[in-house]
From TrEMBL:
Pfam families per the UniProt record, alphabetical: BPD_transp_1
Entry membrane topology: Multi-pass membrane protein
Top-level taxon in the UniProt lineage: Bacteria
Protein name, entry field: ABC transporter permease protein
UniProt xrefs under SUPFAM superfamilies: MetI-like
Protein family (similarity comment): Belongs to the binding-protein-dependent transport system permease family. CysTW subfamily.
Keywords associated with the record: Cell membrane, Membrane, Transmembrane, Transmembrane helix, Transport
Protein's cellular compartments: Cell membrane
Gene3D superfamilies: MetI-like
A Gene Ontology term for the protein's cellular component: plasma membrane
Organism per entry: Gloeobacter violaceus (strain ATCC 29082 / PCC 7421)
GO molecular function terms listed in the Swiss-Prot or TrEMBL record: ABC-type polyamine transporter activity
Membrane-spanning ranges: 7-32, 61-86, 98-118, 124-147, 173-194, 230-251
Domain ABC transmembrane type-1: 62-248
Amino acid sequence: MSGRRALWLRLWAVAVFGYLYLPILVLVVFSFNSQKLNLRWQGFTLDWYRVLLADTRIQEAAINSLVVAGAATTTATVLGTLLALALARYRLAQPAELLLYIAIIVPEVVLGIALLIWFSQLGIAAGLVTVATGHVVLCTPFVALTVRARLSGYDRTLEEAAMDLGAREWTTFWRVTMPAIWPGVLSGALLAFTLSLDDYVLALFTAGPGATTLPLRIFSMVRFSITPEINALSTLWVVGVSLVLLVAQRFSRSIGVATKD
């Protein structure tokens, strides 16, 4: 009976992963399709990748997305981690966590309109700075809640023991606290990076001339037709994000091994 149950669970897991990744596999395959309309398979070609690499507008949008995602991820990770530490150590944690959940639940359209009004009232011109600022607002609650979950099982007596042995607060934080919560910090940073790269709604409200991100560029392209060039771009995007996740996972494991040693 247990063997049948294990087999059923394996088949179910394969079916779920197939459901999740089969559309992406089809997208990757059709990025090599020689037919421009991309309605059926006609033949293998790499021309669409050559066209993509020669498209300066795509390159500019990709650079803008990476710059915005890097700035937003760094800022949101720092702010979210500090906020999570404050929630774990001081009172009024539950009302503050409720505010974080509200910030997550608020629709992005509402947040985008609010940011647009806020920037216009302050007289700030729309550009990469406003897009990155909006992404920081979007990503910080996710980072804070992720790190907060990691801190739920954290033993603060380790910090007290380190300080009793003569370590200062800053040294205790970097040598004791940070290694313990590092998996949560890294998970929050990866989540923020993914959210920033994928965001379209906030960028639509906060981007200005010369600040077109990759999701905005892709949407402007698919409004007319879905060509293999878009599939090639999506394939490179998926491969790039996957490589970032693999590197981050290896880095997290190396940090974990070093901490145990």
